[in-house]
Input
Amino acid sequence: MARIIAIANQKGGVGKTTTAVNLGASLAASEQRTLVIDCDPQGNTTSALGFPRDPARRTLYQALMLGEPIERVIIDAQVEGLDLIPSDKNLVGAAVELVSADEREYKLKALINPLREKYKFILIDCPPSLDLLTLNALAASDSVLVPIQCEYLALEGVSELLDTLMRLRRSINPSLAIEGILLTMYDDRTTLSKQVASDLRSFFGGQVFESVIPRNVRLAEAPSHGMPVIFYDIHSKGAESYIQLAKEVIANAQKRAGTRTERTDSGPGIAASAAAGAGASGTGGNNGDDGGGNSGGPGSGTD
Ligand code: ATP
Ligand code: MG
Output
């Protein structure tokens, strides 16, 4: 049964697409069959996986708006164990056309729920906005992974975003959980990066992934070669960091599966207090099960 994870942040350029592509490839490389859904009309995930613009290609638009069977828009991402539902600029139309549709927030959910049997993970790359495409992604997901760039005012942005997610949880998806907050473009040579990482960890505790994505030129170069970084330069810091993240996501899924038999509720969602500790949020990485040390520094020693 796939876990469906939306990769979302309404702020642009924070590493959503880079995470969708590279976490997707790293999960597949760890023998976790994965589907990446490009839900952004920019189509960056599609091109980063090696599919340049092609008007003849069927995309998410056809499935979402024209009733094309979902199986017919899924393509093999040329990485073993990784599939892709591509996008292109037509998807802009969907964001507009959906406005007058019935059950407009739940179209994607209806479309992809039947795919849960086929995959271990389904990652949805969202556009940098809170439009109907993003709402559809969040309604269809079990959890949301929030990439945050380690920069000035990052903390303010995340708090706002989490407030928004809380509201969405009350309306469109009561069981939406936080998969984790991911620190991206971390530069250990700058005090600012360290400070931002440390602030985010002390504020959000166990909801922040242990794995940190460094600023790494290989990650920026790989998309222009149409391949995930693990195939472009497996020895780069960027590749290592996404492999680490995949391990953490898999471990959290296993932990969740292990505790599900003991618990009757669906576990903590967005409301789960940041200070509640790693054990509860399921994003505490290798913190063990007592959630003791969730303030462990600005990613120190993790990258
Ligand atoms: P958008 O909001 O436009 O969809 P995004 O959140 O998907 O953007 P990306 O496209 O993943 O962000 O990243 C923005 C830019 O930063 C890209 O050029 C990408 O290659 C680069 N980039 C992302 N992560 C890193 C990193 N860790 N190190 C260096 N460059 C990075
Ligand atoms: Mg993007």
